[in-house]
Amino acid sequence: MNESQILTMTNEKFPWVIFRLEDSFFALSSHCVQAMISSFDVKPIPGDLEDLRGVINYANQVFCLVDMRKKIGFKSMEVEIKEFASLMDAREQDHKNWLNTLMECVQQGKEFTLAIDPAKCRFGLWYNDYLPKVKNNNLAFWLKKFDVPHKKIHGIAKKADAFIYSGEKEMAIRLIEETRNKELKAMISLFAKIKEIYRSSQREIAIIIDPKFTGQPLALLVDEVIVIRNLPEENWQKIDRHLRSESGKLISGFWKFSEIESLVMTLDIACFA
Known about the structure:
about 270 residues; alpha+beta; CATH 2.40.50.180; Four Helix Bundle (Hemerythrin (Met), subunit A); 7 helices; 11 strands; about 45% helix; disordered N terminus
Protein backbone atom coordinates (compact mmCIF):
# COMPACT_ATOMS: atom_id res chain seq x y z
CA MET A 1 0.00 0.00 0.00
CA ASN A 2 1.53 3.33 -1.01
CA GLU A 3 1.59 6.62 0.88
CA SER A 4 -1.40 8.23 -0.88
CA GLN A 5 -3.54 5.12 -0.31
CA ILE A 6 -2.68 5.16 3.39
CA LEU A 7 -3.50 8.88 3.65
CA THR A 8 -6.89 8.45 1.92
CA MET A 9 -7.84 5.44 4.00
CA THR A 10 -6.72 7.17 7.19
CA ASN A 11 -8.85 10.24 6.63
CA GLU A 12 -11.86 8.11 5.70
CA LYS A 13 -11.64 5.50 8.45
CA PHE A 14 -8.60 5.84 10.66
CA PRO A 15 -7.24 8.65 12.88
CA TRP A 16 -3.57 9.52 13.31
CA VAL A 17 -1.36 8.68 16.27
CA ILE A 18 0.42 11.90 17.22
CA PHE A 19 3.59 11.42 19.25
CA ARG A 20 6.49 13.47 20.56
CA LEU A 21 10.25 13.19 20.06
CA GLU A 22 12.08 15.81 22.17
CA ASP A 23 10.17 19.03 21.34
CA SER A 24 8.96 17.92 17.90
CA PHE A 25 5.71 16.21 16.97
CA PHE A 26 5.02 13.47 14.46
CA ALA A 27 1.99 11.53 13.21
CA LEU A 28 1.59 7.96 12.06
CA SER A 29 -1.54 6.45 10.55
CA SER A 30 -3.33 4.30 13.11
CA HIS A 31 -4.16 2.01 10.19
CA CYS A 32 -0.52 0.85 10.42
CA VAL A 33 -0.54 0.48 14.21
CA GLN A 34 -1.14 -2.88 15.85
CA ALA A 35 -0.70 -1.74 19.47
CA MET A 36 0.96 0.81 21.76
CA ILE A 37 2.66 -0.41 24.93
CA SER A 38 4.46 1.33 27.80
CA SER A 39 5.73 -1.73 29.65
CA PHE A 40 8.22 -3.94 27.84
CA ASP A 41 11.62 -5.55 28.28
CA VAL A 42 14.27 -4.67 25.73
CA LYS A 43 16.85 -7.31 24.87
CA PRO A 44 20.02 -6.06 23.17
CA ILE A 45 21.06 -7.60 19.88
CA PRO A 46 24.64 -8.10 18.64
CA GLY A 47 26.13 -5.76 16.11
CA ASP A 48 26.43 -2.01 15.73
CA LEU A 49 22.94 -1.18 14.47
CA GLU A 50 22.66 2.58 14.91
CA ASP A 51 18.87 2.96 15.04
CA LEU A 52 17.94 -0.22 16.92
CA ARG A 53 17.56 -0.25 20.70
CA GLY A 54 17.10 -4.03 20.69
CA VAL A 55 14.16 -6.43 20.42
CA ILE A 56 10.94 -6.75 22.41
CA ASN A 57 8.33 -9.48 22.66
CA TYR A 58 4.69 -8.70 21.97
CA ALA A 59 1.89 -11.26 21.55
CA ASN A 60 4.49 -14.05 21.34
CA GLN A 61 6.26 -12.35 18.45
CA VAL A 62 9.69 -10.69 18.45
CA PHE A 63 9.79 -7.09 17.16
CA CYS A 64 12.89 -5.05 16.36
CA LEU A 65 12.65 -1.82 18.38
CA VAL A 66 13.61 1.23 16.29
CA ASP A 67 14.77 4.18 18.39
CA MET A 68 12.92 6.97 16.57
CA ARG A 69 15.05 9.67 18.15
CA LYS A 70 18.13 8.18 16.49
CA LYS A 71 16.22 7.47 13.29
CA ILE A 72 15.20 11.14 12.98
CA GLY A 73 18.64 12.38 14.01
CA PHE A 74 18.04 13.38 17.65
CA LYS A 75 20.04 12.23 20.67
CA SER A 76 18.64 9.08 22.28
CA MET A 77 16.66 9.18 25.51
CA GLU A 78 19.44 7.21 27.19
CA VAL A 79 21.96 9.92 26.26
CA GLU A 80 19.58 12.70 27.35
CA ILE A 81 19.11 11.13 30.79
CA LYS A 82 22.87 10.70 31.24
CA GLU A 83 23.50 14.30 30.17
CA PHE A 84 20.88 15.59 32.61
CA ALA A 85 22.43 13.58 35.45
CA SER A 86 25.89 14.90 34.53
CA LEU A 87 24.54 18.46 34.52
CA MET A 88 23.05 18.02 38.00
CA ASP A 89 26.32 16.51 39.27
CA ALA A 90 28.25 19.49 37.90
CA ARG A 91 25.91 22.05 39.50
CA GLU A 92 26.13 20.17 42.81
CA GLN A 93 29.94 20.28 42.64
CA ASP A 94 29.78 24.01 41.85
CA HIS A 95 28.19 24.69 45.22
CA LYS A 96 30.60 22.46 47.09
CA ASN A 97 33.43 24.39 45.42
CA TRP A 98 31.68 27.72 46.15
CA LEU A 99 31.62 27.04 49.90
CA ASN A 100 35.17 25.67 49.87
CA THR A 101 36.40 28.80 48.10
CA LEU A 102 34.55 31.06 50.53
CA MET A 103 36.15 29.21 53.45
CA GLU A 104 39.59 29.55 51.87
CA CYS A 105 39.09 33.29 51.35
CA VAL A 106 37.95 33.78 54.97
CA GLN A 107 40.85 31.79 56.40
CA GLN A 108 43.51 33.39 54.18
CA GLY A 109 42.10 36.89 54.02
CA LYS A 110 41.59 36.80 50.24
CA GLU A 111 38.90 38.51 48.19
CA PHE A 112 35.92 36.30 47.34
CA THR A 113 35.12 36.70 43.61
CA LEU A 114 32.54 33.97 42.88
CA ALA A 115 28.87 34.76 42.22
CA ILE A 116 27.04 36.18 45.24
CA ASP A 117 23.76 36.68 43.39
CA PRO A 118 22.05 33.22 43.27
CA ALA A 119 20.50 34.10 39.90
CA LYS A 120 23.94 34.55 38.35
CA CYS A 121 25.70 31.32 39.24
CA ARG A 122 25.59 28.53 36.66
CA PHE A 123 22.86 26.68 38.52
CA GLY A 124 20.79 29.85 38.95
CA LEU A 125 21.02 30.68 35.25
CA TRP A 126 19.98 27.14 34.30
CA TYR A 127 17.24 26.97 36.96
CA ASN A 128 15.53 30.24 35.97
CA ASP A 129 15.54 29.23 32.31
CA TYR A 130 14.55 25.58 32.79
CA LEU A 131 11.86 25.70 35.49
CA PRO A 132 9.22 27.64 33.47
CA LYS A 133 9.49 25.03 30.70
CA VAL A 134 8.90 21.99 32.94
CA LYS A 135 5.58 20.27 32.24
CA ASN A 136 6.02 17.43 34.71
CA ASN A 137 4.28 18.67 37.89
CA ASN A 138 6.23 16.37 40.18
CA LEU A 139 9.56 17.48 38.73
CA ALA A 140 8.52 21.15 38.99
CA PHE A 141 7.44 20.64 42.61
CA TRP A 142 10.84 19.29 43.65
CA LEU A 143 12.79 21.80 41.59
CA LYS A 144 11.07 24.66 43.45
CA LYS A 145 12.45 23.25 46.71
CA PHE A 146 15.91 24.43 45.59
CA ASP A 147 14.87 28.06 45.97
CA VAL A 148 15.32 28.46 49.74
CA PRO A 149 18.60 26.57 50.37
CA HIS A 150 20.15 27.94 47.17
CA LYS A 151 19.45 31.54 48.12
CA LYS A 152 20.62 30.95 51.70
CA ILE A 153 23.95 29.53 50.51
CA HIS A 154 24.68 32.55 48.34
CA GLY A 155 23.41 34.87 51.06
CA ILE A 156 26.17 33.95 53.52
CA ALA A 157 28.92 35.57 51.44
CA LYS A 158 27.96 39.07 52.57
CA LYS A 159 27.34 37.85 56.13
CA ALA A 160 30.80 36.25 56.27
CA ASP A 161 32.33 39.46 54.91
CA ALA A 162 30.56 41.44 57.63
CA PHE A 163 31.96 39.12 60.32
CA ILE A 164 35.47 39.54 58.91
CA TYR A 165 35.05 43.33 58.81
CA SER A 166 34.07 43.35 62.49
CA GLY A 167 36.97 41.07 63.46
CA GLU A 168 34.83 37.98 64.04
CA LYS A 169 36.63 35.52 61.78
CA GLU A 170 35.57 32.47 63.83
CA MET A 171 31.92 33.47 63.42
CA ALA A 172 32.40 33.56 59.64
CA ILE A 173 33.99 30.10 59.69
CA ARG A 174 31.16 28.75 61.87
CA LEU A 175 28.57 30.21 59.50
CA ILE A 176 30.17 28.44 56.51
CA GLU A 177 30.32 25.11 58.36
CA GLU A 178 26.69 25.40 59.44
CA THR A 179 25.67 26.17 55.86
CA ARG A 180 27.65 23.19 54.59
CA ASN A 181 25.92 20.89 57.08
CA LYS A 182 22.41 22.23 56.47
CA GLU A 183 21.67 24.07 53.20
CA LEU A 184 24.34 22.31 51.12
CA LYS A 185 23.20 18.89 52.38
CA ALA A 186 19.63 19.86 51.48
CA MET A 187 20.72 20.77 47.95
CA ILE A 188 22.70 17.53 47.57
CA SER A 189 19.59 15.54 48.54
CA LEU A 190 17.51 17.54 46.07
CA PHE A 191 19.97 16.93 43.23
CA ALA A 192 19.69 13.17 43.87
CA LYS A 193 15.88 13.39 43.98
CA ILE A 194 15.71 15.42 40.76
CA LYS A 195 17.88 12.91 38.90
CA GLU A 196 15.67 10.06 40.11
CA ILE A 197 12.44 11.84 39.09
CA TYR A 198 13.83 12.83 35.70
CA ARG A 199 14.94 9.28 34.97
CA SER A 200 11.68 7.66 36.10
CA SER A 201 9.50 10.20 34.27
CA GLN A 202 10.94 9.32 30.86
CA ARG A 203 8.48 6.52 30.12
CA GLU A 204 8.94 5.72 26.45
CA ILE A 205 6.18 4.16 24.36
CA ALA A 206 6.65 1.34 21.84
CA ILE A 207 4.31 1.65 18.86
CA ILE A 208 3.89 -1.84 17.40
CA ILE A 209 3.58 -1.67 13.60
CA ASP A 210 1.45 -4.20 11.74
CA PRO A 211 4.06 -6.28 9.85
CA LYS A 212 2.01 -6.22 6.63
CA PHE A 213 3.02 -2.57 6.17
CA THR A 214 6.77 -3.10 6.61
CA GLY A 215 7.28 -6.72 5.66
CA GLN A 216 9.01 -7.32 9.00
CA PRO A 217 8.04 -7.07 12.70
CA LEU A 218 8.96 -3.55 13.79
CA ALA A 219 8.14 -1.36 16.78
CA LEU A 220 8.85 2.38 16.97
CA LEU A 221 10.18 3.78 20.24
CA VAL A 222 8.84 7.30 20.96
CA ASP A 223 8.92 9.69 23.92
CA GLU A 224 5.18 10.06 24.40
CA VAL A 225 1.91 9.52 22.56
CA ILE A 226 0.07 12.86 22.74
CA VAL A 227 -3.32 12.14 21.20
CA ILE A 228 -5.10 10.13 18.51
CA ARG A 229 -6.99 12.40 16.12
CA ASN A 230 -8.45 12.68 12.65
CA LEU A 231 -6.52 15.35 10.78
CA PRO A 232 -8.18 17.18 7.88
CA GLU A 233 -6.61 16.26 4.57
CA GLU A 234 -7.14 19.78 3.21
CA ASN A 235 -4.70 21.11 5.83
CA TRP A 236 -2.02 18.56 4.98
CA GLN A 237 1.02 19.77 3.05
CA LYS A 238 2.64 16.94 1.12
CA ILE A 239 6.39 16.79 0.56
CA ASP A 240 7.21 15.07 -2.71
CA ARG A 241 9.51 12.12 -2.19
CA HIS A 242 12.16 13.38 -4.64
CA LEU A 243 12.35 16.73 -2.77
CA ARG A 244 13.00 15.24 0.65
CA SER A 245 16.44 15.67 2.15
CA GLU A 246 18.38 12.63 3.31
CA SER A 247 17.67 13.46 6.98
CA GLY A 248 14.00 14.07 6.26
CA LYS A 249 13.32 11.12 3.99
CA LEU A 250 10.94 9.63 6.57
CA ILE A 251 8.71 12.73 6.49
CA SER A 252 5.94 12.69 3.90
CA GLY A 253 4.21 15.94 4.87
CA PHE A 254 2.99 18.08 7.74
CA TRP A 255 -0.05 19.59 9.41
CA LYS A 256 -0.47 22.66 11.58
CA PHE A 257 -2.11 21.16 14.67
CA SER A 258 -3.89 23.77 16.80
CA GLU A 259 -4.16 21.63 19.95
CA ILE A 260 -0.41 21.73 20.50
CA GLU A 261 0.31 24.88 18.46
CA SER A 262 2.95 23.11 16.46
CA LEU A 263 3.63 21.54 13.11
CA VAL A 264 3.00 17.79 13.08
CA MET A 265 5.14 15.89 10.61
CA THR A 266 3.69 12.73 9.09
CA LEU A 267 5.83 9.61 8.73
CA ASP A 268 6.05 7.67 5.52
CA ILE A 269 5.68 4.11 6.78
CA ALA A 270 6.91 2.81 3.42
CA CYS A 271 10.43 3.96 4.38
CA PHE A 272 10.53 1.25 7.06
CA ALA A 273 9.83 -1.55 4.60
